[in-house]
Amino acid sequence: MILTFDIGNTNIKSALFETDEIKDFQVHTSVEDVIEYIDHIKFNVAAICSVNPTSEKILISKLKTSVTPIFCATVNQKMNLTINYRTPQSLGMDRVCSAVGALDLAVKEKITSKNQYLITIDFGTATTINIVSPDRKFIGGLISPGVKTMLKSLNKNTAQLPLPDLESYQGIIGNSTESSIVSGVITATIGMISETVEKLKNESTNNPIIYVTGGNSKLILPHLSYNVNFEKDLVLKGLKILYDLNK
Q1: Among candidates 26, 20, 64, which has minimal Cα distance to 46?
Q2: For the segment 64-79, what is each residue's pLDDT rounded down to a tens digit?
Q3: Quick check: helix, strand or coil at residue 118?
Q4: What is the spatial order of strands in the sheet that 229-230 belongs to?
Q5: What is the domain class of 82-239 according to CATH?
Q6: Are the beta carbons of 5 and 16 closer than 8 angstroms?
Q7: What is the edge-to-edge ordering of all strands in the sheet holding 70-72?
Q8: Active site residues
Q9: What are the φ and ψ backbone dihedral angles of 185, each rounded to 5 degrees?
Q10: If 116 and its partner were Cys, which of 79, 141, 206, 230 is the partner (CB 3.0–4.6 Å)?
């Protein structure tokens, strides 16, 4: 049994794999929750994908008392794609793992074709759009504040703007301050995705394949006009693939 961790800026996700099947999936709100969880399950190996060094250090210290080996994902490992990124040392491994996982799923589900881009979108504290070229190279993407991060920033850095509920979105033209803020945040995110998809459509003969993940997905998915594949555990599936390729 392999226990995988996706350590983000806000939450930590975990998935317990038996061979390729996920037996348990959890979203933890703190590293303390993870430590308590570890004490109640059995596993042989731990694998980690992290963008939060502080939480990662605490978790690894705990894991060392529970299990070895511990696998940590890095850009230098064997993958099912090639990293073509100017600053690989600063590339978040959650972005890489989402691309690795999506490519594996697309191949297994036989939905890939020649001259077709692959996009993964992670709606978390940040919204990241990650792009794999038709020749299976991770070529980069876009990073912007997540939808809730945008809301909090407006509320914190202005004197009078409130902190509205994103689920109250009713359309592109807001008729109150609250609905105008929600519309601005949702429309900005949708527009970023649309621009990216349209650019890649123009550069190829096929529509891009799109995989979506992240805790804020439910706020954006109803408003996208593209066919997307939602995978709540996409990063963890990619991490498991990296482990299998490098063990």
Answers
A1: 64
A2: 988 889 999 999 999 9
A3: strand
A4: 82-83, 137-145, 126-132, 118-123, 209-213, 229-230
A5: alpha beta
A6: no
A7: 21-28, 12-18, 2-7, 45-50, 70-72
A8: 94
A9: -70, -50
A10: 206
